[in-house]
């Protein structure tokens, strides 16, 4: 081979390998379900919260792809080095989300062909089909009226940053045993969220004697929580 052509061939080979690694991976329901069993796999639902609450895949995280701010905030809590299995209702939104994720450094993104519609057609079960009753606003206010410090955690199991906060909260509560925890489901308890003006999970609010004394939306460091607890 001509010595001047050799570098060009190497560059083309590397480019081809890179493009192959970024290639679209769309699989049918059976292959998607099998892939979900891998250790460390991340299941990502890019439908709306309302759609998610009508039924979702087991252990799925959720971010509405049509809400760019929400999607961009939540997707950053996924591990780019681990497989992400993404789906929507029929495949359109998951295709766009997967393309964005590949362009932004995710190593392996797999889409489910046909989305939840195909999953249902195959007779597969969904989690969360039976909606639990909402917490009432009155129940919430009764819970935060305690004379002790109350930490309200507005979160959801499908919210990536909420999952990141779970071990932090557990560690905080172990250290601060007098603090009472009240959990508000960010997908279900919509009336309570409106009453306390909590727009999105995760949101953390401290109450003392029924009055709000501090709040933050997003990830909170345990040192900040400990400092706040000590000062109250």
From TrEMBL:
Pfam families xref list: Rhodanese, Thioredoxin
Keywords: Signal
Stretch forming the signal peptide: 1-23
InterPro entries: Rhodanese-like_dom, Rhodanese-like_dom_sf, Thioredoxin-like_sf, Thioredoxin_domain, Thiosulfate_ST/Rhodanese-like
Domain Thioredoxin: 112-232
Keyword field contains Signal: yes
Annotated Rhodanese domain residues: 37-128
Protein name as annotated: Rhodanese-like domain-containing protein
Source organism phylogeny: Bacteria, Pseudomonadati, Bacteroidota, Chitinophagia, Chitinophagales
């Amino acid at each position: 081979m001509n010595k001047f052509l050799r570098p060009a061939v190497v560059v083309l080979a590397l480019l081809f390998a890179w493009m192959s690694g970024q290639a679209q991976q769309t699989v049918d329901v059976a292959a998607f379900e099998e892939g979900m069993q891998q250790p460390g796999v991340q299941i990502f639902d890019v439908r709306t919260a309302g759609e998610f609450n009508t039924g979702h895949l087991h252990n799925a995280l959720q971010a509405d792809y049509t809400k760019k701010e929400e999607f961009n905030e939540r997707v950053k809590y996924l591990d780019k080095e681990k497989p992400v299995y993404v789906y929507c209702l029929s495949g359109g939104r998951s295709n766009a989300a997967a393309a964005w994720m590949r362009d932004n450094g995710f190593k392996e993104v797999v889409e489910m062909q046909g989305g939840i519609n195909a999953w249902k057609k195959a007779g597969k079960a969904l989690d969360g089909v039976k909606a639990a009753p909402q917490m009432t606003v009155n129940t919430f206010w009764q819970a935060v009226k305690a004379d002790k410090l109350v930490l309200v955690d507005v979160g959801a199991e499908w919210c990536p940053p909420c999952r990141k906060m779970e071990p932090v909260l557990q560690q905080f509560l172990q250290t601060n045993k007098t603090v009472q925890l009240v959990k508000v489901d960010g997908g279900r308890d919509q009336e309570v969220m409106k009453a306390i003006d909590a727009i999105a999970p995760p949101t953390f609010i401290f109450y003392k004697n029924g009055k709000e004394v501090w709040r933050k939306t997003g990830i909170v460091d345990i040192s900040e929580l400990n400092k706040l607890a000590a000062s109250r």
